[in-house]
Structure formats: structure tokens, C-alpha cells
Write a structure and sequence with these properties.
This protein is mainly beta. About 15% of the residues lie in helices and about 40% in strands. The protein contains one helix and five strands; from the N terminus they run ββαβββ. It has a five-stranded antiparallel β-sheet, with helices on one face.
Length: about 80
């Protein structure tokens, strides 16, 4: 199992926080991230590697930001960046 981090920003819905969890692969980590994020935007990391940004745009509809976005600035879709 690999260790993943889900990083949330202060966004008016909740406070900034980081959740660390283990998953067998990135696909499962993304599923866990979607369950944890609920109505918030977040960045998903595997160790020091930025995987993507996520946010819910509608009922059961998610946007996933490119992993090629600059992680120091974050993808444009993420709140708090």
C-alpha cells in the first residue's frame, strides 16, 4: 500500500486540513479522495508527487485538474490558490 495525502484549503466550507491515508493504487486513492472531499476542493498527493486537484461540480460530477499543473500555485479550479 502507498501513502496518499488529500490537502484541503480554507474555502468557506471548512478549514484547511490534510488527510493522510493508504491505498493500493491511485485509482482507489481517487475514490477515497472523492468520498472525503464531498463538497470541497482538494489536492491529491502520493508522497511528494502531486497527482491532481479535485472538486465536485454537480451531483456525482467531479472535475479533475491536470497533474501537470504547477503544484506550488495549484490548478486554477482549486479554492485557496
Amino acid at each position: 500500500m502507498d501513502t496518499y495525502r488529500l490537502v484541503f484549503f480554507e474555502d468557506g466550507i471548512g478549514e484547511a486540513k490534510t488527510i493522510e491515508f493508504e491505498a493500493p493504487d491511485a485509482a482507489r486513492a481517487l475514490t477515497i479522495a472523492h468520498l472525503e472531499a464531498k463538497e470541497r476542493t482538494a489536492k491529491l498527493w502520493k508522497g511528494d508527487t502531486y497527482l491532481c486537484g479535485i472538486r465536485r461540480t454537480g451531483h456525482d460530477v467531479w472535475e479533475i485538474a491536470s497533474p501537470h499543473s504547477d503544484p506550488s500555485r495549484g490548478p486554477t479550479l482549486l479554492a485557496g490558490t
